Model the fold of this input.
Amino acid sequence: MNKERGKRVGIVGAGNVGATVAYSLAMLGTCHEIILRDNKIEVAKGKALDMSQAAAAVRSHTVVTVAEDISQLTDCDVVVVTAGSPRLPGMSRDDLLMINAKITKEVIQGIAKYSPNAIIIMVSNPLDAMTYVALKESGFDRSRVIGMAGILDSSRMAAFIQEKLGYGGGQIRASVMGGHGDDMVPLPRYSTVAGVPLSDVLTDDEINEIVHRTRHGGAEIVGYLKTGSAYYAPAKSTAIMVEAILKDTKQIHPCAVYLDGEYGYNDVVSGVPVMLGANGAEKIIEVTLDEKEKDMFKNSCASVQELIDSLNNNKFFEGE
Ligand SMILES: NC(=O)c1ccc[n+]([C@@H]2O[C@H](COP(=O)([O-])OP(=O)(O)OC[C@H]3O[C@@H](n4cnc5c(N)ncnc54)[C@H](O)[C@@H]3O)[C@@H](O)[C@H]2O)c1
Ligand SMILES: O=C(O)C[C@H](O)C(=O)O
Done:
């Protein structure tokens, strides 16, 4: 972390998610400067001015600026990448693979060049495959390339539990592992309400309904919005990760990371509990899964692997 000047967070893609992350961070005031980078430079400039003024309103010292070119995104401590297309109704996140992989490749090469010490938080979809692309294109250690999805998926599950119960808001700890796809792995066995196991307060049918809704939580919102996907909860979840890194909290959050033997998997990205701190993903926690949970995790990793295979078959990583 740079000690001479305040902490600097870059955000590539100042659309719905990126701008909301920036706003959230500006209100928290943990970093000194937030730099927005988007191809739509005028829009980014307008949003940056608007957010700096909002920061002044709440007496936050954070300033929001714009990088007109990726070469101006220098010496960031953390860079959040939300550049790319969101899905539309009827699409799966995987349908975004090739279009967003190309964008990710381009922006990650710039980040690696101009902010070589940054910790990268990937947001663009399909999340696990884009985190894999970011890792390969940056050449960074795996601890410095982390995908955001698990906090979002767990928060969704918690909200659905609260809705079903009608009580317990703020006291629910929901757990979701695996990739950020339709076969993500919600873990009712590791979910509690004020410390009480979920199975003590809900029936099996109710829990299954919540699991199903969590898996399709992103699509549910796309179905309403029509022109794009969710951004308030995704942005807040991303800001939680940025804060954990900047403040070196060493707290555990579900994040997408490159697995190198953990859970029995290699050379794939998936969502697992991770300790976040100043050095990024400082530790991967291996929780005990029962046979059914292991099977679900296996399926989820296989889906991410298919996307990586598809990139390889398209010679995406060749010539590097
Ligand atoms: N991981 C998650 O849980 C999660 C949650 C929500 C959204 N997402 C994903 O995040 C991405 C962004 O979603 P959104 O709703 O903000 O979309 P958006 O369309 O509102 O914003 C994307 C922005 O990226 C910009 N952009 C495109 N190419 C660029 C480039 N090369 N350099 C700089 N900027 C570029 C666009 O101009 C646009 O402003 C999508 O891929 C979406 O699927 C992931
Ligand atoms: O659903 C999407 O496409 C966006 C994001 O991954 C989400 O879960 O909200």
In short: The two ends are 29 Å apart (CA to CA). The chain has a mean pLDDT of 97. The longest helix spans residues 291-313.
